[in-house]
Design a protein that fits this description.
Keywords: ATP-binding, Kinase, Nucleotide-binding, Transferase
CATH superfamily: Ribokinase
Largest sheet: 9 strands, mixed
Strand content: 25-35%
GO biological process, one term: thiamine biosynthetic process
Structural class: alpha/beta
Strand order of the largest sheet: 3-2-1-4-5-6-7-8-9
CATH topology: UDP-N-acetylmuramoyl-L-alanine:D-glutamate ligase
GO cellular component, one term: cytosol
Shape: globular
Number of strands: 9
InterPro entries: HMP/HMP-P_kinase_dom (IPR004399), PM/HMP-P_kinase-1 (IPR013749), Ribokinase-like (IPR029056)
Distance between the termini: 23 Å
CATH architecture: 3-Layer(aba) Sandwich
Order of helices and strands: EHEEHEHEHEHHEEEHHH
GO molecular function: ATP binding; hydroxymethylpyrimidine kinase activity; phosphomethylpyrimidine kinase activity
Mean pLDDT: 93
Helix content: 25-40%
Radius of gyration: 17 Å
């Protein structure tokens, strides 16, 4: 059995963060390990409070897992502070393991999830990453990205890792589509599904990046892993259990089962 490690924040409501990552890993048949960076008190209506784990303990968690398990892939999510970014970088810089980095610092709703002074430091992890998966808000902050901004696209092509920008929308044949764009080797690849009109999208970004990580661990290419992850999320949202009073969680197990049909 392949082993995946997620380094991310904990979501007390179970829909995002390490909980979403572990559910995704299990859906794809991987054994999931975790290193928690922050604890959040949250539910589907929002984050109530955040408690930062000490950087030394974050490092201890990661090293404990790596010492005992043959980890096939690492997914990185919410890091929150400069100090946690520094210890994560210190651990991963000498590893020969695929790393999928979801630079979680602005939510889909535009809320900040990272200390302001840490955004530049976040970029120092790019050279150790196989793929980064920013949403549109994060891509705008990191690269001044917009679809027709040639300067931003040139910046992205110069990065030492591949980049998939998620959560865009496209109108095609009078139908609104959900679009993710992969920039790689001075090219770009587009991945579409129908856009589902729903509020059940809590944790989709976390689950998307961990699904990519899972499939890379299973030997799939980055492009194939993104395509699988895209349809996994589509089906998980389509079959969401409608829980909570806000942005509801998705159905990880059902999302995977639909891939097999």
């Amino acid at each position: 059995m392949k082993v995946a490690l997620t380094i991310a924040g904990s979501d007390s409501s179970g829909g995002a963060g390490i909980q979403a990552d572990l559910k995704t890993f299990e859906a794809f048949g991987l054994f999931g390990c975790s290193a928690i960076t922050v604890l959040t008190a949250q539910n589907t209506t929002g984050v109530r409070d955040i408690y930062e784990i000490s950087p030394d303990f974050v490092k201890a968690q990661i090293e404990a897992v790596l010492k005992d398990f043959d980890v096939s892939v690492i997914k990185i999510g919410m890091l929150f502070s400069n100090e946690i970014i520094d210890v994560v970088r210190d651990v991963i810089k000498n590893l020969d393991i695929p790393i999928i980095f979801d630079p979680v610092f602005i939510s889909k709703a535009g809320s900040k999830l990272l200390n302001d002074d840490a955004v530049e430091n976040l970029k120092s992890l790019f050279q150790y990453s196989t793929l980064i998966t920013p949403n549109l808000f994060e891509a705008k902050a990191l690269f001044d990205y917009e679809e027709l901004n040639k300067e931003a696209i040139e910046k992205i092509h110069l990065l030492p890792c591949k980049v998939v920008i998620k959560n865009d929308k496209k109108l095609k044949d009078e139908e609104i589509l959900s679009l993710d764009t992969l920039f790689h080797n001075e090219k770009k690849s587009l991945f579409y599904t129908k856009l589902i009109d729903t509020t059940n999208t809590h944790g989709t970004g976390c689950s998307f990046s961990s699904a990519i990580a899972a499939n890379i661990a299973l030997g799939k290419s980055i492009e194939n892993s993104i395509e699988i992850a895209k349809y996994f999320i589509y089906n998980a949202v389509l079959n969401a259990p409608n829980l909570g009073h806000g942005m509801g969680p998705i159905a990880h197990k059902k999302g995977y089962e639909c891939l097999k049909n």
